[in-house]
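::Amino acid chain::
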Amino acid sequence: MTPGDSPVRSRLARALTWLSAAALAVMMFWTIADIVLRTLFRLPLRGSVALVETMLVLVAVLALAECFGRDEQIKVDVFDHMVSGRGLSFLKLLGDVATLVFVLLLAATMVQPLMDAWRFWDIKPDIPVPIAALLGVMELALVASAFVLVVKIARALRRSTSPGREA
């Protein structure tokens, strides 16, 4: 993360990143095995598309907290050279607040589908993965990302209100 970072935030984001890396490894090795078996033995692995689709979602969502914590998301810096340092800090804070609102809205809209998937115990058709488990992991990752963003915003506000410190 960043120097002087919260240990809880760092560990949480790092754990989710490791889970993301594991999902990427599963996706990669499954695809390699599918290609080798299909090519050499004409024996494709069933559910490959569903597994890759599931792992791809997990790779993206689980890595969000670390990405937000390190401030490494893709940004368009068209206005950076047009505003002062204080103005730029304000714009970055505004972007973080907008991102937090979006992540919270996304997490909130996922609650009902998660409850429905849990209630009816939906399972992906091609692989025996409960959809509730997938949505639960995604919800956890979004809540963790929101936590990381809240800590990041609080630090930015503290820095901007500290006397004698340029934001």
Observations:
- Residues 7-41 form the longest helix (35 residues).
- The chain is about 75% helix and 0% strand.
- The chain has a mean pLDDT of 91.
